[in-house]
Amino acid sequence: MRLRRHPLSALALLACLAVPGALAFARTADQPWPSSVDAAQFAEQAAAVQEEMKPGGRFGAIGAADRSEVERNLGVVQKLFDERGAASRMNNREQVQLANAQEKINALLTGNDDERLICTLEQRSGTHFKTKICQTARQRREVTRQSQEGYQRQLMQGGPSQTVGD
């Protein structure tokens, strides 16, 4: 996976390092929505994004449907911070929700959905432990496409799901 750098403030860097797996992915400098660390930082970021979505702002040309989706995801993030106060107090499921909402906001505002990170909690084979897996939308589509092509190829060649001579 290709990671890009984002100049994080000392507070954000420290918070991400202090919380294992807590939104510690890097972002580009042009991303309007860096990973929030606490409720106060989120409030500042949300106000700035909402101001920039007004006509004449950096994101003033965003469509009504995208604007509504940004507002919906801002609500998801607000709810998480209302409940926990900071990313460091969120459990894995909540951190995944936070990361996905923030990535969706980034993708909508920058018009770059293929580079949006999507995180999931996946159970590893043979264990009850779940691991946080983050991939871009493009990577997820490619894995799905390759899996479907492999399955189709196996069916066409008379793989294990078909018996020879039928």
Total number of beta strands? 2
Largest sheet: 2 strands, antiparallel
Calculate the mean pLDDT score and round it. Answer: 75
Question: In percent, how much strand structure appears in the residues?
Answer: 5-15%
Order of helices and strands: HHHHEEH
Describe the structure.
- The protein is mainly α and 166 residues long.
- It is built from five helices and two strands; from the N terminus they run ααααββα.
- Helix 2 packs antiparallel against helix 3.
Task: Provide a compact summary of the structure.
With 166 residues, the chain is mainly α. The chain is built from 5 helices and 2 strands; from the N terminus they run ααααββα. The protein has a two-stranded antiparallel sheet.
Write the layout of secondary structure elements.
Layout: H1 10-18, H2 39-52, H3 64-84, H4 92-110, E1 117-123, E2 130-136, H5 137-156
Antiparallel strand pairs: 1-2
Helix pairs in contact: 2-3, 3-4
Keywords for this structure?
single chain, 166 residues, mainly alpha, flat, disordered N terminus
